[in-house]
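Hi all, long-time lurker, first post. I run a small reading group and we've been trying to get comfortable going from sequence to structure in the token notation. Rather than ask abstract questions, I figured I'd post a concrete chain and ask someone more experienced to write out its structure so we can walk through it together at our next meeting. Sequence below, copied exactly:
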Amino acid sequence: MSEILHAGVRGCVICGADNTETVFTFTREWLIRVRGANPLLLDDMEFDNDSSSSIVRCRDCSCYYIRDVYAKRLNYEPTVWSEEELLQRRDGYRNIFSRANMHHLEYQTRIMRYISRMVLSKNTGHKSELSLLDYGASFGVLTPMARVFGFKRVVAYDPGFSDNTDQLSGQEAIINFRYTNKFEDVDRCGPYDAIVCQSADEHFFELRNEIKRIYETLKSDGIVYFSHPIMDLSADLSNLRNEHNIKNPTKRDLEKRYHLDHMNYVMPRHFKNILHDQGFTECGIIFNYMYESERGILSFKNMVSLAKGIVKYVFGLLHLNFFKTEYFVKKK
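-- Answer (accepted) --
Happy to help. Here is the structure in token form:
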């Protein structure tokens, strides 16, 4: 049984060494008692009392990652969602495009506008239609948004999609794009003028290999946008270990950041080095922040958001990486 549970043992996702210390372990008992996990869902995952998954710190480079990834998270076997499951996912996806998410949509619109301008600036002498790949897409807003911004051929790739996910975006629809869970489809439709990888790399079992794949499916003059979340485990570890005594909103933040599906806790300096090692170089910095128009520009929340946006932008200009979450890169 242990061979199945820990079939996904990895070396360090940064330096490749296997010289670690365990700092935290997810167990069934902890997930139920502290996180309130549904035992039936854990049963479906076959995550029983003998199952575990541990966060470790590499003694060589200090990177945090899950070493013994729970094997069921790796085995994306072909599935077909029932009509009911498809409808649930469709309705959930539609709800993203709503008043409650308008500030997020505005933020993402500025991202896509920046990507499209960068791509067009490199294609001034061409008349061919533009293509975009959403790598590790889930059900994000950039996929349909790319079509609105003029990308003719748009592919959303996620190994977690079912074999019939394409039914959610029929090719007869005006804003049409393709879902796929097979990299062979991605490769066949490439190379791409633009690739977006938004809050996905923390899910990659083979982080360097996945970024290499992105590099290989990009056109020679293409643009990649990475949105890389900062999960500073060195700052959060004490709270994670003491989560059973912590109340919201800190507890809610811990639940979002640290769980079985997040395998990599790579800080910006290391992530930027990986991009460089795989052949990328930065080609742009965007000034962006979340603005809530109904609060007024001088509201405390908007002023804090503006200040954070300015700090991130200035740090980007100075090539200081600690607060960096967004990377616009091209091939060297």
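A couple of things your group might point at:
The chain has twelve helices and 13 strands.
Residues 1-6 have pLDDT under 50 and may be disordered.
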